[in-house]
């Protein structure tokens, strides 16, 4: 069942759907519609929650929205929180019982069997110079302008480097002009929108993904990079900071609003020990974020909800899941 519009007609579509388990992204009207139809059709409901809204510049505590989400949450059998902030938001703000929240990544990286391709437009990087990749929609909140400033500082103070910018958007012309004005037009290469295979090839070629966002829940490309064993230079203004990415373990967390600090973080990839240690950490992170692992986690949740609905009390499957959550 494919649903695109948040319309009251969705109630009818949910009511007519024959699936015994529904999985919804976040809460809000979609979750509420799915929950209300449980009154007429017996089914389980699982909600995937990505973050706590703070990283989108919102608190997630507006009265009307909280009331709506709390109502929708009453119909959900099990939540899978992608991060600790998401889990805490469910428990502390939406008052969801802790027993109905599982903490575990459900955003998946790129498939292992996806063929990697080299970008169509490539310029050779200077020998020994680090290569960085930034990927996302080219809009102001993504902070790509701050990264280009950091690249210029890195070039002046440390050594040559190259940045591949993947994606497109309304800020592209301004970013191209900024790179030209700062004298790094030859080092900042705009690749435009690419297919998943080319994204995979670009990530596998680079020393680090740089994600200088000013607001994001997590950032799928962060997960995609880690799945490939690529470390991430990450803004703290995303739910991935301190959850998916651990500072000094599989990446570096640095505020992009200080381009000098960001340039210093980039320069650390010239240190062989740091580069190897972060790459090793990223490889250790990859297993839990692989598509097969994420799919297995969600299917496990589906099986547990089915079992719990058949036997609401004394379910061995449900008790096992509770034990796993206690360990987490």
What does this structure look like?
This protein is of the alpha/beta class. It is built from twelve helices and ten strands. It folds into two domains: 9-108 and 291-327, Glycogen Phosphorylase B (Rossmann fold), CATH 3.40.50.2000; 131-289, Rossmann fold (3-Layer(aba) Sandwich), CATH 3.40.50.2000. The chain has a six-stranded parallel β-sheet with strand order 7-6-5-8-9-10, with helices on both faces. Strands 1-2-3-4 form a four-stranded parallel β-sheet, sandwiched between helices. Helix 3 (63-73) links the parallel strand 2 (44-49) and strand 3. Helix 5 (144-157) packs across helix 9 (259-267) and helix 8 (220-227) crosses helix 10. The radius of gyration is 22 Å and the shape is elongated. The two termini are 33 Å apart. Mean pLDDT is 86; it is low at 1-5 and 322-328.
Set out the fold topology.
Blueprint: H1 9-16, E1 21-25, H2 29-36, E2 44-49, H3 63-73, E3 78-81, H4 84-93, E4 101-103, E5 131-135, H5 144-157, E6 162-166, H6 172-181, E7 188-192, H7 196-205, E8 208-211, H8 220-227, E9 232-234, E10 251-253, H9 259-267, H10 272-289, H11 291-310, H12 316-327
Parallel strand pairs: 1-2, 2-3, 3-4, 5-6, 5-8, 6-7, 8-9, 9-10
Helix pairs in contact: 1-2, 2-3, 5-9, 8-10
């Amino acid at each position: 069942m494919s649903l695109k519009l948040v319309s009251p007609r969705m109630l009818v579509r949910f009511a007519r759907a024959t699936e015994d388990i529904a999985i919804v992204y976040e809460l809000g009207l979609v979750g509420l519609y799915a929950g209300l139809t449980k009154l007429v059709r017996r089914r389980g409901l699982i909600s995937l929650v990505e973050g706590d809204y703070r990283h989108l510049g919102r608190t997630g505590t507006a009265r009307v929205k909280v009331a709506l989400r709390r109502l929708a949450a009453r119909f959900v059998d099990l939540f899978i929180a992608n991060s600790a902030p998401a889990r805490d938001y469910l428990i502390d703000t939406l008052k969801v019982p802790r027993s109905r929240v599982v903490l575990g990544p459900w955003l998946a990286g790129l498939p292992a069997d996806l063929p990697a391709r080299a970008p169509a437009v490539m310029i050779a990087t200077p020998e020994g110079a680090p290569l960085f990749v930034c990927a996302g929609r080219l809009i102001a909140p993504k902070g790509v302008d701050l990264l280009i400033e950091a690249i210029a500082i890195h070039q002046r103070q440390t050594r040559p480097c190259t940045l591949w910018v993947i994606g497109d958007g309304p800020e592209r012309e301004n970013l191209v002009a900024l790179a030209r004005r700062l004298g790094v037009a030859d080092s900042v290469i705009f690749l435009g929108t690419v297919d998943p295979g080319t994204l995979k090839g670009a990530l596998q070629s680079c020393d680090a993904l740089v994600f200088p966002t000013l607001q994001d829940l997590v950032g799928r490309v962060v997960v995609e990079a880690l799945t490939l064993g690529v470390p991430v230079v990450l803004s703290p203004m995303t739910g991935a900071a301190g959850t998916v990415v651990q500072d000094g373990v599989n990446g570096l967390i640095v505020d992009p609003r200080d381009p000098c600090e960001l340039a210093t973080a980039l320069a650390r990839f010239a240190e062989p020990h740091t580069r190897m240690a972060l790459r090793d950490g990223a490889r250790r992170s990859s297993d839990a974020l692989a598509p097969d692992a994420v799919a297995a986690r969600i299917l496990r949740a589906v099986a547990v909800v089915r079992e719990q609905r058949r036997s609401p009390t004394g379910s061995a499957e449900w008790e096992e899941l509770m034990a796993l959550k206690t360990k987490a």
